[in-house]
Amino acid sequence: MTTAAPDLWYNFIRAHRNLIREIERRLAEEKLPPYHWYDALWGIESGQNGTRRMHELADVMAIERYNLTRLVDRLEKDGLVIREKALDDGRGATARITEAGRALRKRMWKVYEQAVDELFLAEFDEEQKRVFAAALENASRNARQLLRPAQLKR
Known about the structure:
This protein has 154 residues and is mostly helical. The chain is 66% helix and 12% strand.
């Protein structure tokens, strides 16, 4: 009798969806904005000098640019980021995190980090973390390499 192999892809997608839902629930419970705000604020803050070009931010977040524009509009309206024309390209724009944005991102991180530690990282020993992180990085690299030629055709 053979046992079916675990469906790693399905389990990964389902776990990701459920983890994000729980992180969203915990953020809401603390009266904090949704997860995608954290993602955007971290994407900007992690750029050079707390600034990132909008197209780079879309790539870092893996979000469509039209959705990103609306999100950054909201963050800017709330004083969390400042959008500016790119100095080297008049058509481009950058987003820069404000001190209020940094403070909010740090408050959100406390909730987010606890959920990740408790619900995800606790399931792995150090060697498993290393192997899984490397496999995910390889899969991500493979997908990025395949995307580049398609993006160049646009």
